[in-house]
């Protein structure tokens, strides 16, 4: 009877905590939205700067003429006197997002102007980004850490400067897409679900549509996958989290006109394909090891290594030939500027003339990141403790690659979804 009362009390506490978390997240969203409205209060509802005004003009054309004319629009007033093919030279995510919001509102008989929708798109997506940060951090460290991360992102000055009302630029929706893609990757890694893997590829596609910074995703995730393989943390969940992202994500990315075949031809994407090959080799090794004896396994490994070296040398030769034929060795100006801060000033003066492309001064870090600058050391330590790619915790026992170990050394089956032991609830059964 006492055990039943304790279970009921625990259930009630969890329900109250979930309701409280929901209202806190709602308040964080309101805070993120309202804190970015001071520009409207002070300067009225206007579009700021040059790039946002160009994006606003493109959105106006989209809502007036439709998406087909948008893809085929040649704008003779941009890049005068050469003109510009808009559909093939812009990242359409921002324009399509604002255009869709305007269409939905007008379908509901809410007659807002295109300019008003464009002005408030960034503040709205800042709330979405805060909620995505909560989901990401909760998946890694828990609900309390998620709420803290969400409120910090809502107030950090560097993000406010890129999402203030009237700042209708690509980052308005791209930061949300970036965070949400990482959340779905971690969610897939923890659950091993193909459903979340598919959503992850779609979120990556939305990020590709929104901003050229999608290359950071397609390089950071392969780095994490390679680190897991090197440290002996390969699992079927890791394969499910990565392989569909590369295949489906690359196919979807190539559908964006401004990206096209760059999704497979530029050096920024080669790391993802290399790790894609590596993870399949590792999966093959694990499969062969499971069906062969130890002696036959050594022979098979020798054969696979020999054939693999020949194939790798041939692939590397082709890649080197392709890269060597490019003046920039297959790297875009964005990546070369990241690797060499002096690249733009030497070769692309018009890019170097923009203030945001200049190397930042040390005070700017503290002005833009604010209190987060002092929390960086603690945050780095928290990211690695406990060191595990599956962050499910059941009571005092921590999950570490689908195996629990108690303090006395006795193993238990993992309760996380996607586990090879298929224990789908949070009760720990004997292994």
Characterization of this structure:
A hairpin with a 5-residue loop joins strand 5 and strand 6. The strands form three sheets. The chain has a two-stranded antiparallel ribbon. Strands 3-4 form a two-stranded antiparallel sheet. Strands 5-6 form a two-stranded antiparallel ribbon. With 431 residues, it is mainly alpha-helical. The protein is 68% helix and 3% strand. It has helices spanning 2-34, 38-43, 50-65, 67-71, 86-89, 93-107, 114-141, 143-155, 157-163, 171-191, 194-210, 214-230, 236-253, 262-265, 270-291, 294-324, 333-339, 343-347, 349-352, 362-369, 372-384, and strands at residues 74-75, 84-85, 393-394, 397-398, 403-405, 411-413. The radius of gyration is 25 Å and the shape is globular. It is built from 21 helices and six strands. Helix 6 crosses helix 7 (114-141).
Task: Summarize this entry quickly.
This is Dolichyl-diphosphooligosaccharide--protein glycosyltransferase subunit STT3A. 68% of the residues lie in helices and 3% in strands. By secondary structure, the protein is mainly alpha-helical.
Break the fold down into its secondary structure elements and pairings:
Elements (H helix, E strand, L loop, with lengths): L1 H33 L3 H6 L6 H16 L1 H5 L2 E2 L8 E2 H4 L3 H15 L6 H28 L1 H13 L1 H7 L7 H21 L2 H17 L3 H17 L5 H18 L8 H4 L4 H22 L2 H31 L8 H7 L3 H5 L1 H4 L9 H8 L2 H13 L8 E2 L2 E2 L4 E3 L5 E3 L18
Antiparallel strand pairs: 1-2, 3-4, 5-6
Helix pairs in contact: 1-7, 1-8, 3-6, 6-7, 7-8, 7-9, 7-10, 10-11, 10-13, 11-13, 12-15, 13-15
Protein name: Dolichyl-diphosphooligosaccharide--protein glycosyltransferase subunit STT3A
Organism: Melia azedarach
């Amino acid at each position: 009877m006492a055990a039943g009362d304790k279970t009921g009390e625990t259930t009630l506490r969890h329900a109250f905590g979930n309701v409280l978390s929901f209202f806190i997240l709602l308040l964080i969203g309101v805070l993120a939205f309202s804190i970015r409205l001071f520009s409207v209060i002070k300067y009225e509802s206007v579009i700021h700067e040059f790039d946002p005004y160009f994006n606003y003009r493109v959105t106006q054309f989209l809502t007036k003429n439709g998406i087909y004319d948008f893809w085929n629009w040649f704008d003779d007033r941009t890049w005068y006197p050469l003109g510009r093919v808009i559909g093939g030279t812009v990242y359409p995510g921002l324009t399509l997002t604002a255009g869709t919001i305007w269409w939905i509102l007008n379908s509901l008989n809410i007659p807002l102007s295109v300019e008003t929708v464009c002005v408030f798109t960034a503040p709205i997506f800042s709330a979405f980004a805060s909620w995505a940060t909560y989901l990401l951090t909760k998946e890694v460290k828990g609900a309390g850490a998620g709420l803290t991360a969400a409120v910090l992102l809502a107030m950090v000055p560097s993000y406010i400067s890129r999402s203030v009302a009237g700042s209708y630029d690509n980052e308005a929706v791209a930061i949300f897409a970036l965070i949400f893609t990482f959340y779905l990757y971690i969610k897939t890694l923890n659950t091993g679900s193909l459903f979340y893997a598919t959503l992850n590829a779609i979120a990556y596609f939305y990020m590709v549509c929104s901003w050229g910074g999608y290359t950071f995703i397609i390089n950071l995730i392969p780095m994490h996958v390679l680190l897991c393989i090197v440290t002996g943390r390969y699992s079927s969940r890791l394969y499910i989290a990565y392989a569909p992202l590369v295949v489906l994500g690359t196919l979807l990315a190539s559908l964006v006109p401004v990206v096209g075949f760059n999704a497979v031809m530029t050096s920024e994407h080669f790391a993802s394909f290399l790790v894609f090959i590596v993870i399949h080799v590792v999966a093959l090794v694990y499969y062969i090891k499971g069906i062969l004896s130890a002696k036959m396994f050594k022979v098979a490994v020798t054969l696979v290594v020999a054939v693999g070296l020949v194939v790798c040398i041939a692939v590397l030769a082709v890649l080197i030939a392709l890269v060597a034929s490019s003046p920039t060795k297959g790297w875009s100006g964005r990546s070369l500027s990241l690797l060499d801060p002096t690249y733009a000033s030497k070769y692309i003066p018009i890019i170097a003339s923009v203030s945001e492309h200049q190397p930042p001064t040390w005070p700017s870090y503290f002005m833009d990141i604010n209190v987060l600058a002092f929390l960086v050391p603690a945050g780095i330590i928290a990211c690695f403790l406990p060191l595990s790619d599956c962050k499910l915790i059941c009571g005092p026992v921590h999950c570490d690659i689908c195996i629990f170990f108690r303090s006395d050394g006795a193993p238990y089956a993992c309760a996380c979804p996607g586990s090879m032991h298929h224990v789908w609830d949070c009760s720990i059964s004997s292994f």
